[in-house]
Specification:
By secondary structure, this protein is an alpha+beta fold. It has three domains: 269 residues, Transferase(Phosphotransferase) domain 1 (Transferase(Phosphotransferase), domain 1), CATH 1.10.510.10; 280 residues, Neuraminidase (6 Propeller), CATH 2.120.10.30; 273 residues, 6 Propeller (Neuraminidase), CATH 2.120.10. The strands form 14 sheets. The protein has a six-stranded antiparallel sheet with strand order 1-2-3-4-6-5, with helices on one face. Strands 27, 28, 29, 30 and 31 form a five-stranded antiparallel sheet that branches. It is globular. About 10% of the residues have low confidence.
Length: 909
């Protein structure tokens, strides 16, 4: 289309595309002026009745001549296509402005008044727009608003209904009568104008829903949240205006748009004079608190009063201050706690599966006010909010890649981690705000999460977070973090904390006593963790005992999880004044993880007593399921690895709350448990002869590599000396002299590829560093090349280097690549892109070359999130693939809620 001349219009460039057609910038060769051509979609006007109606409406719109309406110059046809010729406008849409941030109130009122002015002119000529929305509102460079697409709305409305009466498009701005498919009039534009103003000042839609049906239901049945409850500094007068504009009954709505315009102008003047009533909602980051009216700020009305009145005022103020002082002294001596409700237990199953990495990430939490629970969906890693009063859950749009959410003190914002960033988002929904980004890192959301928990300071001004095992503090509005606590800092007590080293994770602030800043957090290695209390002002640091994820309860207890993979919840009686336990800890539930407690004593935790049953399944290259392997497991299956002879598969799997190594037989439904230790055992790899299996285990502090005979006849032995880091074997090369492994958690290089090379005399192995930024490496069958994944240049991609010199890096994947595996003959590589298995040819003749990747099939089981692991394996000929498959139609752990949890244990012995 670009470069063609249609009628006497030469098409220059494409401006945009929507459901009703495509818009181009063109030159009117007759009048030598720029214009906008909108070619209408053929299906929109294929119905003769629709076409007649559109032409009638468009002609009416073409007669509109107003500064706030984009004029229509002409309606024409060419090559069987109908198009509109409109004025070409330079500027940006209101939608673009809202996407940046909510508008200032005076700016929103200025725009709203102009919209009303344009609609007034249209309504006087009996033209109704019917599709007022931010995308149809253009602001020119001079700040003048132009309403676009007059004449298309009636056609758009007609085309939204198919023969099956199914609504198409995004109905966010529809009036209730439009949603009910009833006749509309000019009052439907008034409704849409109210929605636009609401969105301009809050950045949120008043009617939300994951699906169109939910949005339509909200439009017809639900009342929107007042704007003053969502943003501080807004006047209550605006609530009244929007309430009238969004009345569901047309007869209760503004009957004429000029009436709404009058109220908007009146509010504009009232704000300018400082006479409007301003609310103080929970202030969002980046929104400054409102200024007091000038008269109050200057003390107007007091200095000019008579002397006896001034004395009376001073006496009253003195008495009032005295009463406040007495009340402060009383309540300081008698600390009050919020009243606790009766004991009540219930639970709910989220509409989406929770994150599967239960042992490493807290993924849920109740708000301080006890009204909402935030949790993270597994596949999409998106935040969801559950309303405890209504019993409904909704996603927080724009939070894809989210992890480890934590609440602000006022329950109005949620902090979370996304790849290399810390972000915050209003609990009501809206645009996320970036608080901090890890320098020099451009990880995608599938990268390793270097953060381990965050907490809002009680005054709401800053956020404390764990990065690389250290605690940092950053302003909640964004800024440069400052180191707060280093693991190597000695404590000021004789307890074991002095001189201790380890990683600090999952910080949580205790309620402030006299303004003190005190944290509790998890401290230690991957497998052995203790709880620690830390007074940030005095530097005092005390070990509280084994456990992790401590969280304070207003009942006077610290609730915590027994360990990384020990799903029991305990309560430690705790004194905020002494900062120490006051009695023995007691068990409150089994099969639970990540306890959080609200200010009213409501406890929430994830119930892990049930698990998702899975079984290994064969797939072909086209994505067809060919059959099952071995026996099912009651829990998740990870890291499948096919034996060299193709007759057995080793996996790590969850059974009865423990993660162990299991062997499945390929030809018959038999599985055998190989390890029984209570520690976590994972990431098993076969030896080249198939007689031994290497795996990682958290038995000695870190996650170290062990070797065990495949028949289980001997106890596992450590392959190398114990380490405080996480290490796992990814390949055991054919001659048994090379063992490739990944090391995670190094301070200077978060992930490394190393290999163990057998010493010349055959006694032990020598450790050799291959690459500082890479992981999940696999040697080619001939031992000449190493394939691996790395995020050194952004998202994780698959690469190949020569081995052992590490030269000649060659990128294999095109759009992300993880989990690389070789075909047995070395002529093909497989890797995962998102949730899709990819294959690419490899040639080592003369020089190393790879072909263009080909898509094989997709599966949710291939998706990894932030994990470093294998989810599949492939046969020697590259024709069949094994993946775990769920045996349940849908599964998600239940979130348990216990109101006034301590009442159950009050009378314990």
């Amino acid at each position: 289309m670009i470069g063609r001349t249609i009628s006497h219009y030469r098409v220059l460039s494409k401006l945009g595309e929507g459901g009703m057609g495509v818009v181009y910038k063109a030159e009117d060769t007759k009048l030598e002026r720029p214009v906008a051509l909108k070619f209408l979609a053929a299906q929109a006007i294929e119905d003769p009745e629709n076409r007649t109606r559109f032409l009638r409406e468009a002609k009416a719109a073409a007669r509109l001549d107003h500064p706030n309406i984009c004029p229509v110059h002409e309606i024409d046809e060419a090559d069987g296509q109908t198009f509109l010729v409109m004025a070409y406008l330079e500027g940006r849409t209101v939608k673009d402005k809202i996407a940046e941030r909510p508008l200032k109130l005076d700016e929103a009122l200025y725009i709203g008044i102009q919209i009303a002015e344009g609609l007034k002119a249209a309504h006087e000529k009996e033209v109704v727009h019917r599709d007022i929305k931010p995308a149809n509102l253009m602001l020119t460079k001079g700040g003048q608003l132009k309403i676009m697409d007059f004449g298309l709305a009636q056609l758009a409305e007609a085309s939204k209904l198919t023969k099956t009466q199914t609504l198409l498009g995004t109905p966010t701005y529809m009036s209730p009568e439009q949603a009910r498919r009833e006749p509309t009039d000019h009052r439907t534009d008034i409704w849409s104008l109210g929605v636009v103003i609401y969105e301009m000042v809050t950045g949120l839609s008043p009617f939300e829903g994951e699906r169109q049906e939910a949005v339509l239901y909200a439009i017809e049945q639900k009342e929107p949240e007042p704007v003053t409850a969502l943003r501080s500094g807004l006047p209550t007068d605006l609530d009244h205006i929007l309430e009238k504009a969004l009345a569901k009954n047309q007869d209760e709505r503004y009957q004429h748009v000029e009436d709404m315009q009058v109220d908007l102008r009146w509010l504009q003047k009232k704000l300018a004079s400082g006479r409007s009533t301003i609310t103080q909602a929970g202030a969002a980051p980046g929104l400054a608190p409102p200024r007091a009216p000038d008269g109050l700020a200057k003390g107007a009305g007091f200095g000019s009063a008579p002397a006896h009145e001034r004395f009376a005022w001073l006496f009253a103020v003195f008495c009032f201050v005295g009463m406040l002082a007495l009340a402060w002294l009383y309540f300081r001596q008698t600390p009050s706690k919020p009243p606790l409700a009766p004991l009540l237990r219930f639970g709910f199953t989220p509409p989406v599966s929770l994150r599967a990495e239960l042992g490493f990430h807290p993924n849920d939490g109740i708000s301080p006010n006890g009204k909402h629970i935030v949790f993270t969906a597994q596949n999409e890693s998106r935040l969801w909010i559950h309303d405890l009063e209504r019993g409904t859950s909704r996603p927080l749009e724009g939070t894809e890649g989210a992890d480890d959410p934590f609440w602000s003190p006022g329950s109005d914002f949620i902090g979370y981690f996304a790849g290399a960033q810390i972000r915050t988002i209003p609990a009501r929904g809206g645009m996320p705000t970036r608080v901090y980004e890890r320098p020099g890192s451009t990880n995608d959301f599938g990268g390793d999460v270097r953060f381990r928990g965050g907490a809002w300071r009680p005054d709401g001004n800053s956020i404390v977070f764990s990065e690389d095992g250290k605690l940092y503090e950053v302003p909640a509005r964004g800024g440069t973090p400052q180191l707060l606590v280093s693991p190597e800092e000695p404590g000021q007590s004789s307890e074991p904390s002095k001189g201790a080293t380890g990683l600090i994770r999952w910080p949580h602030f205790l309620p402030p006593e006299d303004g003190a800043r005190v944290l509790v957090y998890t401290f230690g290695s991957e497998s052995e963790r203790t709880m620690m209390v830390h007074d940030l002002d005095s530097g005092r640091r005390e070990v509280l005992g084994p456990g992790e994820l401590p969280f304070y309860s207003p009942s006077g207890h610290l609730l915590y999880q027994a360990g990384p993979r020990t799903y029991d919840l305990w309560a430690l009686p705790f004194s905020l004044g002494a900062l120490q336990g006051t009695g023995p800890a007691f068990s409150i539930t089994q099969n639970g993880r990540h306890p959080t407690v609200s200010a009213d004593g409501t406890l929430t935790y994830i119930d892990v007593s049930s698990s998702e049953p899975q079984q290994l399944v064969w797939w072909d290259r086209e994505g067809n399921k060919l059959g099952t392997i071995g026996e099912p497991h009651t829990g998740e299956i990870r890291h499948p690895s096919l034996s060299p002879d193709g007759r057995r598969v080793v996996v790590d799997a969850f059974e009865n709350g423990n993660q162990d190594i299991w062997i499945h037989e390929v030809d018959r439904p038999v599985k055998t448990r190989l390890t029984t230790h209570e520690a976590v055992d994972f990431f098993a790899t076969w030896s080249p002869k198939g007689d031994q299996i290497a795996f990682s285990s958290g038995r000695t502090g870190g996650f170290d590599i062990y070797v065990v005979r495949a028949d289980g006849s001997e106890k596992p032995i450590p392959l190398v000396h114990p380490s405080v880091f996480t290490e796992y074997l990814t390949d055991w090369w054919a001659d048994e002299g090379i063992l490739v492994f990944t090391r995670l958690g190094m301070p200077k290089a978060d992930q490394m590829i190393l290999y163990l090379e057998r010493k010349e005399k055959g006694e032990g192995y020598e450790e050799v560093l291959f690459l500082e930024n890479g992981r999940m490496a696999k040697l080619s069958p001939d031992g000449r090349y190493m394939a691996y994944e790395s995020d050194h240049s952004g998202p994780y991609e698959t690469y190949i280097r020569s081995f052992p010199d590490g030269k000649g890096r060659l990128r294999v994947s095109v759009n992300g690549g993880r989990q690389v595996r070789w075909r047995r003959d070395g002529k093909e590589l497989f890797y995962v892109e998102g949730d899709t298995l990819m294959a690419t040819s490899v040639s080592t003749v003369a020089t190393l070359t790879v072909g263009y990747p080909q898509r094989l099939f997709s599966s949710d089981q291939l998706r990894l999130g932030a994990q470093a692991r294998f989810t599949y394996d492939v046969t020697a000929d590259g024709q069949r693939f094994m993946l775990p498959d769920s045996l349940a139609e849908s599964f998600s752990p239940m979130i348990r809620v216990v109101q006034n949890w301590y009442e159950e244990f009050r009378d314990r012995d």
